[in-house]
Design goal:
By secondary structure, the protein is α+β, with helices and mostly antiparallel strands. It is built from 63 helices and 30 strands. Bound molecules: zinc ion (ZN) (7 copies). One zinc ion binds next to loops.
Length: 1747
């Protein structure tokens, strides 16, 4: 009934009248608006949207008509003419403005872009100056646009060649240049239309229409509309719709896709009541405990129509304004114009404010319109920006409550506005942008406020990340510093800064922690959100500091404000401590009074943004010299430095205590926080700033008081002020670590000066030093270096500026990446206690540097490098090194080490003490040598006897004693170095002339070294030995690890020497003089092969014999299309109906046998396999990389994937008795042989068909007339067959069944008659693929296969040959007679094959291996003797070769008739003759007659692979050693050697001449075949020889080419241009939508992804795809297996870039590309997948069938 109504409605509406008269009536009417509304009211509602597929086109046509009427009105003439005129008058724009589609490549210039959001489209980039700069590429997520032409986006080269001449000046008032009347009409029309759009889109009354549009009569026609949300999964919605609407899965899917894309979809049309029922159904079905129901609304059909039309109007407007700058300006004017009488915001703002309530489709259309109108005109962009910032807070608040992605929110436009520097500054200066944004943040965070501090407990991750977006906006507005400050800007900025301080205040001391004592923390606190915010704040903080620093007045004001707020904060905190008493501490005659506070007892917070901001500003004050004026702003009386440093110090103490394991009961969250505190992403605004704060304090305080303060906060005061009291081990251990940490902190405070403004260094010096220290750990790839360096707001590290100065680049090999190695001259800058080292890094660097020193035979001391000088205001920090308290600390540590009774010291402590002493002496030396006053007397203090304790010794004498402490052997060199420093300083002090002092020092150094050498030689040698042992132990441990993690590599590398396991002995017979002939009467003799193998499971050695237990190789059988050019045959080449007798020459799908070459006893393997099955079956949901059900397992040794085992069988001896051979040779000509064979086959067939008769015959043989002839074949020699042991037979059957099952994809059935055929085919195919690889790698035919591969190839051959003994001889005879029918027309066999459709190598293998079955007699088991065999093989081979030559001549000579002036050789003459004969037989279908020389060449090239395969085949079958030439690395003489080995005349055509009698009828038959005829007539195609090799698809050199190809690709099965995961099949070049709904396919009732489906045919289940946007290669094997490997592209630093994270330009690496190709051609894809799954457990969880 509903449908009936629908039809009525659409038919009821009259067809719309022609536009012209309508327009006239509008113009004549009083009110244009009501005229248009009247028209819309009449004609929009009849156009109904419905759920059906056919409708949209109709709907589209109707809307088109409506739009045309509007266009008529606009132009006053036919729209086509109007648009054409517009186009003419429109001057090209200077802005490119191209909007990016998802996946499109974008480019940014690291040298010239103002910030990383400035990007170019590919066309602009290619035409710009930046393509020669350091650029980055990326693939867009869609929505952004090209910034070409925007002078504010680029430092240089703002426009490409295409856009640089665009008219920018005169475009400012294009509106005035529009034709008369048009401007006015446009203004009116745009106003009315945009109002209509707003009215319709934000219409909330879901049932009624606005006045003026209400239909005359209301029908009961409603839609049930479903809305998109981001909560429900695709599958869930599809399922729910199926249930609630009762529709098919397909329909539900299409609804869901559209809902997802458009944001809403009418899923039902009907009466109000029926819609209400559906709505209830949907809600009931989708409502659950976990999720709210889907949003459903019921809308009147006319409302839906109007809304749909409004949406069309939006796109129409986009189109119209893109065509003309004039219209665009009028449009902007209209939507930005504040209506004077109304208090409502302008039109664009009204829609903007409704954004969060609109559905996806409407938002997208609106945003697109914004981009192509408001953002394209500088002036209107400014006006729009003002609107945007005015409503900023409201928009953001709504965005946070919205559940749609940010890219469909209008708030995402902020990046287009705030990143324009002038605009950003204008907004800050005139419209308070800074304050508004920060206030928005504060408001958004207000719900997380607890007692004035932020506190994130039970927060929503989604909402929080939405809130964080505002922080990005804050970053954007701050990106460029003002070149000029105005008073207004100062005022506004400081206003914003104060608001910012309010925000920071809520974070200062937030989320404090207390140490857990006794029991573990029960609930780990949420720490991530605070750190996530801190990461975003880092950039903002440093930019704010930069802004402040650019103006002295602002800097001082900001400092004052910051100090005020911080003091306020500190006072609030210390009020809690008000009751505490001041504590007086005394040490070395110095005293300090402070309030007691214990980090280990009282709350402490890591978050101190205010303190850190102040520290940062302080450094800037220093740098700019403004510090001199500080007194005016912050009087020194207010500046309580001890209070300022207290909180950062507490935080540092907390870190020390965490290191000392004192906080272990606080769980992992604290460990993580401590890690992040110093991690590169955070440390600049955390750890680094805390250090600076301490340095500030140290520069202002008395050094003794400073150290006492430290001691007290470290809770170590008593450790150094009292003599030690015995305590338990744990406490001692803790105390020791704390002392180490304290010493380290002192080293850092005094020594770390690499901050511009603290020390006299530049930015590059800082980066340089970081890089040096990173490379001191180990050589590193570029990306790792970049990741370990802090980024600035533009994500730059400055690495490129310095890297070439300090390091050399080492290129990568086939895998891995290029690395940078430190130049040796920079090693002297190494500081062992570099403050950014983690513990593990420090240890590694120390080992590395000591090792290096050891290797160069220099002493192993790692003294502190000379630091750069401090800025003048910080100079006093160094006084710490000379103060009494430090001396006391150092002496105490040394004393305890010398006493060495207690455990109150550690090696690390001594190391740091020595380091500090050296630093102090260095400073004294520097002062003594310099001009300035000397205030250091470290030397004196260190040589003086201690003042605090009575029996204290001097530091110097303690050091002397330390040399004898055995535990400190490793530090010996450093102790000696320190003592030498003392000497040098002493000399300096003694001599007045500084110049000679230095000399003396170095001389002295030399002398002492010699002395030491003498005295210490023995000890040193001892120490060295110890050290060596230690290193060796470390090395071997490392090696072990390496082996563990790189097992496969290692095994490959070490397997070679282990090869003793495979000992084959064939040498005895190899006679050098023997001509290597494998066939016929001259066949070389061979001895029985002796194979001794070691079982990898039980390690026992065994000789392989046919009558003993089988030894088996782990093997993998797979179907393969690797050799084929036409890979579609995979589908036909399988299943129960497939007849695999003859292989098609395109090798459509073959069966490949591979093996890792590892051997086991059959019984050992069986036990192993059973064990694997049992252990894994019991594991529930075990995710294994192999499939047990199909017999898969991993090789126990190398973990290669296997699916069966292959028995090893030794080759038999062959020896021809020369006399007998001669006799046979005389009688047995080819024709005689053929006669025998025919008779034999006919006889066998006959006896088969008349079984009774044959039995009769046996009873009385004489009555059988052909009896003699029938058996004549036997007269040339027979022998009894070899017997195989039961175990071998079993294994042979097992393997044969596996080959059969996998090769044909059928159920295993060992009795199937096709089993032997598959065995032979697998053998032939495996040889062909090996030949193919050898050829590709330019390797010699014999001798280049690794032993293990040779072993397995031999096994495959012996296996195939053994089929005649394992399978029923009857079956084999039947196969043989069918195979022989190619040559024997007399045979009564139904099937005949065209010579074009046979792969002759497959045929040869089958024939040779099946042939012995002819000798089988029912009563006696017989097989041909060696002599018979030799002749059989020879004649079979000759026949097949001749057929192949004919095949080549017929197929492969057609396209080159060019007359060549080749030498007229015997061969070419014979070739021409044979060709003439063929022309004869084909009734002259072979049209022209090429030159004989050319023909000979064709045959020679075409047959070469066949001959090579045949040589491999006969060699591995019989073991006759080949002529030497075939193992030589030279192409010369190969052909002749092959002919010799295969008993062929070098003039191949001689075969035809010799056997003319037999050949002629054959040729005749072959040529007259109908397929041949139709091929020659051009009616069919065929394979040409030599077969073209398979190669991977060619890839462009530059990766961005692929990206662009990908973005231009349009999927024919999908209508939208949404982002797709495009995948390129590297086998055939097909482009597919991976993981995408549009291209999924149903295979056997299961939905699978496009790649998996494609791979079924293209790679017979295997696939190799380049995932374009991810820049990685997807390997697939079937539905359940796959892995990702990097694409074969490298950046300039020799690194791959999976997922395009770094975006450096990428170039094809041909070696890696070749490696991928080999992976395919060598059938190792499956192996690679299993290996990667084995190593990387994560990928197993992926649902590969979705790809
Ligand atoms: Zn562009
Ligand atoms: Zn351009
Ligand atoms: Zn550039
Ligand atoms: Zn064994
Ligand atoms: Zn193995
Ligand atoms: Zn393909
Ligand atoms: Zn698709």
């Amino acid at each position: 009934m509903a449908d009936g109504q629908l039809r009525e409605a659409s038919l009821g509406g009259e067809p719309e009248p022609e536009p012209e008269p309508v327009v006239r009536s509008w113009q004549e009417g009083v009110d244009l608006c009501s005229g248009i509304y009247q028209h819309l009211k009449e004609y929009v509602p009849p156009v109904l949207c419905s759920g059906s597929e056919a409708k949209p086109a109709e709907e589209n046509r109707a809307y088109q008509k409506l739009l045309q009427t509007l266009e008529w009105y606009l132009f006053g003439e036919t729209p086509a003419d109007g648009f054409a005129k517009l186009e003419q008058s429109n001057s090209s724009s200077q802005l490119c403005g191209r909007v990016f589609k998802g996946g499109e490549a974008t480019y940014s210039c690291r040298d010239c872009a103002i910030d990383p959001t400035c990007v170019l489209c590919v066309d602009c980039f290619q035409n710009s100056v930046h393509k020669n700069h350091r650029y980055k590429m990326n693939s867009s997520y869609g929505g952004g646009f090209c910034d070409c032409g925007d002078v504010e986006a680029w430092k240089t080269g703002p426009a490409c060649k295409m856009h640089e001449h665009g008219a920018s000046e005169d475009s400012a008032n294009s509106a005035s240049q529009l034709p008369v009347g048009l401007a006015e009409r446009a203004q009116q029309l745009f106003t009315i239309i945009f109002r209509y759009i707003i009215d319709m889109l934000i219409w909330t009354e879901d049932k009624e229409l606005p006045l003026g549009l209400q239909p005359r009569e209301k029908t009961d026609s409603y839609f049930c509309v479903l809305f998109n949300d981001e909560q429900h999964s695709f599958e869930h919605v599809i399922h729910s719709l199926q249930r609630s609407l009762g529709c098919s899965q397909r329909e539900a899917q299409s609804h869901t896709t559209l809902i997802d894309r458009e944001g809403r979809r009418a899923v039902k049309h009907g009466t109000l009541q029926s819609c209400q029922e559906t709505k209830l159904d949907v809600i009931n079905i989708t409502n659950s405990v976990f999720q709210s129901p889907l949003r459903v609304e019921i809308l009147h059909s006319s409302v839906v129509s109007h809304q749909n039309f409004a949406l069309r109007l939006l796109s129409w407007l986009s189109q119209v304004v893109s065509n003309s700058a004039g219209l665009r300006q009028i449009f902007c004017e209209v939507v930005l114009n504040q209506e004077p009488e109304s208090d409502q915001p302008c039109l664009s703002s009204r829609l903007m404010l409704a954004d969060a309530k609109l559905w996806k489709g409407a938002r997208k259309a609106f945003h697109e319109l914004i981009v192509c109108s408001l953002l394209m005109e500088t002036e209107y962009k400014r006006l729009f920006a003002i609107e945007f910032i005015t409503h900023y807070k409201q928009l953001q608040l709504e965005f946070v409550d919205d559940d749609h992605d940010r890219n469909v929110s209008v708030t995402a436009q902020s990046v287009q506005i705030f990143t324009v520097p002038t605009l950003a500054r204008h907004l800050i200066e005139e419209h308070d942008a800074l304050k508004i944004i920060i206030e928005t943040i504060i408001e958004l965070f207000s719900e997380h406020m607890d007692n004035g501090k932020l506190h994130f407990q039970s927060y929503s991750q989604d909402k929080l990340s939405r809130k964080q977006m505002v922080l990005y906006d804050l970053k954007y507005v701050l990106i460029s510093k003002p070149p000029l400050w105005t008073d207004k800007l100062r005022e506004r900025f400081l206003e914003g800064f104060k608001t910012f301080l309010k925000l920071l205040k809520t974070m200062q001391n937030m989320e404090p922690m207390s140490r857990q004592i006794g029991q573990h923390l029960e609930i780990e606190p949420e720490w991530e959100p605070a750190f996530a915010i801190q990461v975003l704040l880092k950039c903002i903080l440093s930019m704010i500091q930069e802004w402040c620093a650019s103006d002295e007045q602002v800097l001082l004001q900001a400092y004052k404000e910051c100090h005020r707020v911080l003091s306020q904060c500190t006072n609030e905190c210390s009020q809690r401590d008000a009751r505490k008493q001041l504590n007086m501490l005394n040490m070395c005659g110095h005293s300090i009074s402070l309030k007691r506070y214990l980090v280990s007892r009282e709350p402490v917070s890591i978050h101190l943004p205010l303190s850190r901001l102040l520290a940062g500003l302080h450094v800037h004050l220093n740098k700019s010299g403004a510090i001199d004026k500080l007194e005016e702003y912050v009087p020194s009386s207010d500046f309580q430095v001890e209070k300022l440093m207290d909180y950062p110090l507490r935080c540092l103490v907390l870190m020390a205590q965490v290191s000392a394991d004192m906080w272990r009961r606080n769980g992992f969250s604290l460990v993580n926080q401590a890690f992040c505190y110093r991690k590169v992403k955070w440390r600049e605004e955390m750890f680094d700033k805390d250090i600076i704060m301490l340095q500030i304090a140290a520069s202002m305080m008395d050094p003794n008081r400073f150290l006492m303060f430290l001691l007290s906060r470290f809770e170590l005061f008593e450790v150094f002020s009292k003599s030690p009291v015995p305590r338990n081990k744990d406490v001692i251990q803790q105390t020791n670590v704390l002392v180490e940490e304290l010493l380290h902190l002192i080293i850092i405070v005094v020594g770390e000066r690499y901050v511009p403004g603290v020390g006299h260094v530049k930015k590059d010096d800082v980066t340089l030093r970081e890089v040096i220290h990173l490379l001191c750990i180990e050589p590193m790839p570029h990306s790792e270096l970049a990741q370990s360096l802090p980024e600035n707001e533009n994500n730059e590290t400055g690495l490129e500026n310095v890297i070439h100065q300090v390091a050399t680049f080492k290129k990568p090999g086939l895998s891995g990446h290029g690395v940078y190695e430190l130049k040796p001259e920079y090693l002297k800058h190494f500081n062992l206690f570099f403050y950014h080292y983690y513990k593990s890094q420090q240890t590694k660097a120390e080992d590395e540097q000591k090792k290096r020193k050891k290797q160069s035979n220099s002493n192993e001391a790692l003294p502190p490098p000379l630091p750069p000088p401090f800025y003048s205001t910080f100079v006093k920090v160094t006084n710490i090194l000379n103060c009494d308290v430090l001396m006391l600390i150092l002496r105490t540590v040394l004393q305890r080490a010398v006493d060495s009774t207690g455990r109150l010291w550690s090696e690390a402590m001594i190391q740091k003490t020595l380091h500090l002493i050296c630093m102090a002496l260095q400073e004294e030396q520097r002062q003594l040598e310099g001009e300035e006053d000397v205030n250091f007397d470290v030397y004196l203090k260190a040589t003086r006897v201690g003042s605090s304790a009575v029996n204290a010794e001097s530091i110097l004498s303690l050091l002397e004693k330390l040399r004898c402490v055995p535990q400190l052997d490793a530090q010996k060199d450093m102790i000696i170095w320190t003592l030498q420093m003392f000497e040098a300083v002493k000399k300096l002090r003694e001599k007045s002339s500084p110049c000679s002092a230095t000399e003396a020092a170095s001389q002295k150094t030399h002398e002492t070294t010699q002395d030491e050498d003498k005295a210490e030689r023995k000890r040193k040698a001892e120490a060295a030995k110890l050290y060596r042992q230690k290193i060796m132990a470390q090395m071997s441990a490392m090696q072990k690890n390496f082996i563990e993690s790189n097992k496969h590599l290692y095994e490959k590398a070490t397997e070679a020497p282990k090869q003793e396991t495979v000992r084959t002995e064939v040498d005895s017979i190899t006679n050098a003089e023997d001509p290597g002939v494998a066939l016929g009467p001259m066949q070389g003799a061979t001895a029985a092969e002796k194979i001794i193998l070691i079982c990898i499971l039980c390690q026992e050695e065994q000789e392989v014999k046919t009558d003993e237990m089988a030894m088996v190789l782990a093997a993998c059988v797979q179907r393969s299309t690797a050799l084929s050019k036409s890979r579609s045959r995979t589908i036909t080449n399988l299943g129960d109906d497939c007849d695999p007798l003859i292989m098609h020459p395109d090798l459509g799908c073959g069966t490949h046998v591979g093996s890792c070459g590892h051997v086991m006893h059959a019984s050992c393997w069986q036990k192993y396999f059973e064990a694997v099955q049992n252990s894994t079956r019991n594991r529930l949901h075990a995710e294994l990389p192999f499939d047990l059900e199909t017999g898969e397992f991993l090789c126990p040794l190398c973990k290669a994937l296997c699916n069966t085992v292959l028995p090893v069988i030794p080759q038999q001896a062959h020896n021809l008795d020369s006399k007998d051979t001669e006799t046979v040779a005389q009688i047995l000509t080819l024709s005689r042989w053929l006669q025998n064979v025919v008779t034999r086959i006919i006889g066998l067939n006959a006896s088969d068909s008349k079984e009774n008769e044959s039995k009769l015959m046996q009873a009385s043989p004489t009555s059988w007339k052909d009896a003699v002839e029938f058996r004549s074949i036997l007269s040339f020699g027979v022998q009894s067959p070899i017997k195989y042991s039961k175990s071998i037979v079993e294994m042979l059957q097992l393997f044969a069944t596996a080959v059969f099952r996998v090769g044909l994809k059928v159920a295993p059935n060992e009795a199937d008659s096709r089993v032997p055929l598959m065995a032979w085919n697998a053998c032939a195919f495996t040889i062909q693929s090996i030949e193919n690889i050898l050829n590709d790698e330019d390797k010699v035919l014999f001798g280049s296969l690794p032993d293990r591969q040779g072993l397995s190839l031999k096994a495959v051959l012996q296996f195939a040959a053994s089929q005649r003994m394992v399978a029923s001889p009857k079956v084999i005879q039947k196969h043989l007679s069918r195979l022989m029918s190619v040559f024997l027309p007399h045979l009564d066999v139904e099937d005949t094959w065209s010579i074009l459709d046979i792969d002759f190598f497959h045929l040869l293998v089958s024939l040779v291996l099946a042939f012995p079955s002819l000798y089988w007699e029912e009563t006696v088991e017989l097989q041909p003797s060696d002599i018979s065999c030799a002749f059989n093989n020879l004649y079979l081979f000759h026949l097949v070769t001749m057929a192949h030559i004919v095949q080549i001549l017929l197929t492969s000579t057609t396209d080159c008739p060019m007359e060549q002036d080749g030498e007229e050789s015997e061969e070419s003459q014979s070739a021409a003759e044979l060709y003439e004969v063929l022309r004869e037989y084909t009734s002259r279908s072979l049209e022209y007659k090429p030159h004989g020389c050319y023909l000979w060449n064709c045959v020679k090239c075409g047959i070469f692979p066949f001959l090579r395969c045949s040589a491999l085949f006969f060699n591995y079958l019989l073991g006759v050693p080949p002529p030497e030439e075939l193992s030589k690395d030279s192409s010369e003489g190969q052909f002749e050697a092959l002919c010799l080995y295969l008993a062929l005349p070098t003039n191949l055509f001689k075969l035809f001449q010799e056997h003319q009698d037999i050949v002629s009828p054959l040729l005749q038959r072959w040529c007259s075949d109908s397929s041949v005829q139709s091929f020659l007539k051009g009616e069919r195609t065929t394979v040409q020889y030599p077969r073209e090799r398979n190669q991977l698809m060619e890839l462009p050199e530059d990766y961005s080419c692929i990206l662009n190809q990908g973005s231009q690709y349009k999927c024919s099965r999908s209508s939208d241009d949404e982002t797709k995961n495009l995948a390129l099949c590297m086998f055939c070049g097909a482009m597919l939508c991976s993981e995408s709904q549009c291209c999924r396919e149903e295979v056997n009732g299961e939905e699978i992804g496009a790649c998996v489906a494609h791979a079924i045919n293209c790679g017979s289940g295997l696939g190799m795809f380049l995932r374009i946007r991810e820049c990685q290669v997807l390997l697939l094997a079937g539905k359940n297996r796959g892995c990702f490997i990097p694409a074969p592209y490298l950046d300039d630093y020799g690194e791959t870039d999976q997922l395009l994270r770094r975006g450096n330009p990428l170039h094809l690496c041909t070696e890696r590309y070749k490696k991928l190709e080999r992976l395919w051609q060598q059938h190792r894809i499956l192996e690679e997948i299993t290996r990667s799954q084995d190593m990387n457990q994560v990928v197993i969880g992926l649902e590969w069938q979705q790809f």
